[in-house]
């Protein structure tokens, strides 16, 4: 189920809705005064007199013509805008030094935690001289390393990407999706591990949402299939998803449907199969907060209802004729139940792990005959081990305060692996014994940096309605709190996604230039469980924007920075966040970087995967929800009487999750604010999807453009750049 989370990357009181644009006390305030060159000579953009009447409200949409990406006029506009932006970015100082530093930071050798299947180990490596990570395998942990899948050679110029690969339980085959232009759309393939040959028969189109669930004998798998019929409207396609079974060697077009489509484009259908093959599950998800779970034995025809979600979500693990259900039902921070399949009625569930009122349960795995529980406690990871009856055994020793994955392993194998990092500690992989608790370093990433040169602090500030919100601040030691430090504030605030304190190599040049990197843990995320999410979704979405503005005000009040030195950045749902922040409180910010965003909240549901996000945002088709959406929709609140901060919009040409029409329309609106002297630039990444291009060279190029823009906009000179940025 793809969330809106960008890889750049993925949170009360109800805000009163408004029929009109925000009052002068908010949206009509101006950004910090911009000095320097006069208004840029942008490529021309026409404006049409398009006005809809929705629920009695007139809604102007002058740049609707930019929605049709295939139109020659729109293609020409995109080409001229991207060319204009790249010319402008190329002239900004410090680029050579930034490129050199990002090259050192991004081209590194690393390895992921392994998956064990049979006696075979599967994992990924990045290499200093390769653009993309490579999948390797070996017999036994000390066996000879062999290449299995190398996306670097799958296409001539690199636009083909590798999706989530899944080995069979015996380790003899791997199913994997291939994604053209790093988009979500995919074709599923199967490779023979011993020979390295791709099957010519087992090729399945329509694998956009496919999760492969192998049978124990490795002769087939269950997967989600989405028809590619062009006659089906894009916004309706999710409702056509079916769960199918594919038997290796047979024509995929004859695959048996084991669960029919829901017919509801606001839902997701997901399947799962227990490792022993006894239990097949189907989950119908309505957004990120609610789902129904059905199950059956694979040979049976009819599905049995396990639980009907009413405002709650359920995740089910199965092992040795027992279901382990993780849920927020009656427990916003989640708890765990044991269920006997023979007596699976809700009244017979037995609570194993009660809710912890001070920590949020993020995930559960079955490893080494135990339950491995991943918790967030004030947004830092805690890993706990219990027996299968929920009796506490130990808390896993972590290297420090940071972000760790849950234990990865098998239900009946003692060895397990987990990864750990912090803002200033690159990823490390550890092996642990579930039985003894011993923890050993298995692999680590070597990055050219001195982690002792930086410090991280966590602060708590008060949002508009009195809610306490946590925020991480990372900076170089010796920082003086005199209000002059350039600061980059990042946020997301949606879809239950928790912004954890993991390593980000891209921020190091910013820190070395004396900058602060701030991450606000906004409502809408999952940091404090379901209640935190509910306080920032639907009718409560304005709380997220207020939390973000509160973070900016706190940073200025406590003299970390000031408005003209504060930049904001967000992608996807975070792009909506910074778009709303920019249009509601432009006076708080000195620069904005907005990536692959939603910005037209009146029409978002008509494009890409938009209808699947209706449970998160609401829909303009509903009168009450329309009022909420229109009240904060960034595209509809660009004003002619406001000076906005400099804006760099970063879009992708093959984003089939969030339609790039949002970026195009918003840039057109801001560029046509006649009295706005600050630059508004649209950068379009070619051969890239929602998460951008997956080549290191492209990541370096994108990062150089972003930070060169920020350095110039905020008047920052990186010590190694050799050229002082223009001071404003």
Characterization of the model:
By secondary structure, the chain is of the alpha+beta class. Among the domains are: 51-103 and 449-714, 3-Layer(aba) Sandwich (Rossmann fold); 361-446. The protein is 16% helix and 30% strand. It is built from 10 helices and 40 strands. The strands form 9 sheets. It has an 8-stranded mixed sheet, with helices on both faces. Strands 3, 4, 5, 6 and 7 form a 5-stranded antiparallel sheet that branches. Strand 17 (267-273) and strand 18 form a beta hairpin. Helix 2 crosses helix 10 and helix 5 crosses helix 6. The longest helix is centred in the first third of the chain and has 19 residues, at 72-90. The chain is globular and about 70 Å long. The protein starts with 50 loop residues before the first strand and ends in a 14-residue tail after the last helix. The model is unreliable at 5-28 and 721-728 (pLDDT under 50).
Q: Cα distance, first to last residue? A: 45 Å
Question: Would you identify the CATH architecture of the domain at 51-103 and 449-714?
Answer: 3-Layer(aba) Sandwich
CATH top level assignment of the domain at 51-103 and 449-714:
Alpha Beta
Question: What name does the CATH topology of the domain at 51-103 and 449-714 carry?
Answer: Rossmann fold
Assign an overall shape: globular
Report the structural category.
alpha+beta
| β-sheet strand percentage | 25-35%
Uncertain parts: 5-28, 721-728
Total of helices: 10
CATH superfamily of the domain at 51-103 and 449-714: Alpha/Beta hydrolase fold, catalytic domain
Secondary structure tally: strands: 40
| Overall pLDDT score | 92
What about the largest sheet?
A: 8 strands, mixed
Order of the strands making up the biggest sheet: 33-34-36-35-37-38-39-40
């Amino acid at each position: 189920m793809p969330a809106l989370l960008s890889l750049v990357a993925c949170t009360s009181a109800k805000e009163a809705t408004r029929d009109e644009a925000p009052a002068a006390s908010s949206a009509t305030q101006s950004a910090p005064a911009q000095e320097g060159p006069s208004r840029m000579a942008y490529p021309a953009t026409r404006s049409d007199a398009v006005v809809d009447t929705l629920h009695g409200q007139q809604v102007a949409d002058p740049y609707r013509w930019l929605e049709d990406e295939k139109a020659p006029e729109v293609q020409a506009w995109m080409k001229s805008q991207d060319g204009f932006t790249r010319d402008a970015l190329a002239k900004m100082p410090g680029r050579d030094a930034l490129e050199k530093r990002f090259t050192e930071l991004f081209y590194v050798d690393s390895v992921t935690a392994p998956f064990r299947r049979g006696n075979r180990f599967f994992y990924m490596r990045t290499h200093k001289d390769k653009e993309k990570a490579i999948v390797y395998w070996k017999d036994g942990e000390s066996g000879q390393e062999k290449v299995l899948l190398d996306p670097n050679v799958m296409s001539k110029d690199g636009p083909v990407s590798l999706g989530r690969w899944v080995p069979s339980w015996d380790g003899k085959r791997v199913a994997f999706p291939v994604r053209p232009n790093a988009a979500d759309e995919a074709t599923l393939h199967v490779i023979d591990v011993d020979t390295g040959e791709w099957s010519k028969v087992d090729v399945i189109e329509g694998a956009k949402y496919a999760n492969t669930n192998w049978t124990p004998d490795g002769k087939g798998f269950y997967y989600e299939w989405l028809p590619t019929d062009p006659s089906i409207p894009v916004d309706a396609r999710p409702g056509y998803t079916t769960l199918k079974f594919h038997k290796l060697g047979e024509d995929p077009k004859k695959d048996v449907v084991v669960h029919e489509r829901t017919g509801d484009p606001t839902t997701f259908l997901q399947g799962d199969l227990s490792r022993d093959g006894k239990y097949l599950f189907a989950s119908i998800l309505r957004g990120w907060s609610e789902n129904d779970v059905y199950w059956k034995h694979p040979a049976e025809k009819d599905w049995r209802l396990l639980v009907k979600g009413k405002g709650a979500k359920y995740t089910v693990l199965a092992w040795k004729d027992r279901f382990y259900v993780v849920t927020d039902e009656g427990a916003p921070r989640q708890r765990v139940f044991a269920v006997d399949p023979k007596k699976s009625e809700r009244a017979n569930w037995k609570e194993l792990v009660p809710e912890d009122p001070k920590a949020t349960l993020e995930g559960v795995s079955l490893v080494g005959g135990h339950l491995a529980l991943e918790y967030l406690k004030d947004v830092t990871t805690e890993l706990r081990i219990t027996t299968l009856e929920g009796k506490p055994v130990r808390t896993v020793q972590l290297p420090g305060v940071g972000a760790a994955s849950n234990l990865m392993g098998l239900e009946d194998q003692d060895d397990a692996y987990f990864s750990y990092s912090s803002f200033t500690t690159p990823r490390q992989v550890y092996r642990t014994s579930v039985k003894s608790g011993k923890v050993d370093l298995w692999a680590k990433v070597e990055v050219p940096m001195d982690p002792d040169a930086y410090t991280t602090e966590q602060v708590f500030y008060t949002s508009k309605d009195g809610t306490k919100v946590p925020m991480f601040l990372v900076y170089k030691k010796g920082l003086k709190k005199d209000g002059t430090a350039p600061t980059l504030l990042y946020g997301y605030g949606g879809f239950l996604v928790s912004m954890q304190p993991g390593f980000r190599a891209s921020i190091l040049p910013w820190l070395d230039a004396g900058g602060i990197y701030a991450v606000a843990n906004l409502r809408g995320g999952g940091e404090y469980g379901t209640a935190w999410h509910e306080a920032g979704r639907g009718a409560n979405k304005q709380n997220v924007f207020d939390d973000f503005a509160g973070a900016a005000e706190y940073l200025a009040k406590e003299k970390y920075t000031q408005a003209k030195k504060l930049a904001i950045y967000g992608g996807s749902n975070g792009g909506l966040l910074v778009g709303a922040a920019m249009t509601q409180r432009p006076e708080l910010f000195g620069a904005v970087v907005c990536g692959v965003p939603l910005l037209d909240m009146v029409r978002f549901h008509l494009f890409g995967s938009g209808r699947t996000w209706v449970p998160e945002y609401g829909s303009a088709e509903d009168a009450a929800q329309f009022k909420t959406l229109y009240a904060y929709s960034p595209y509809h609140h660009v004003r002619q009487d406001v000076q906005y901060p400099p804006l760099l919009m970063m879009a992708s040409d093959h984003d089939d999750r969030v339609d790039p029409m949002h970026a195009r329309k918003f840039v057109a609106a801001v560029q046509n604010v006649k009295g706005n002297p600050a630059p508004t630039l649209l950068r379009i990444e070619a051969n890239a999807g929602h998460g951008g291009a997956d080549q290191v060279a492209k990541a370096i190029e994108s990062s150089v453009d972003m930070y060169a823009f920020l350095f110039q906009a905020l008047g920052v000179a990186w010590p190694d750049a050799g050229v002082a940025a223009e001071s404003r």
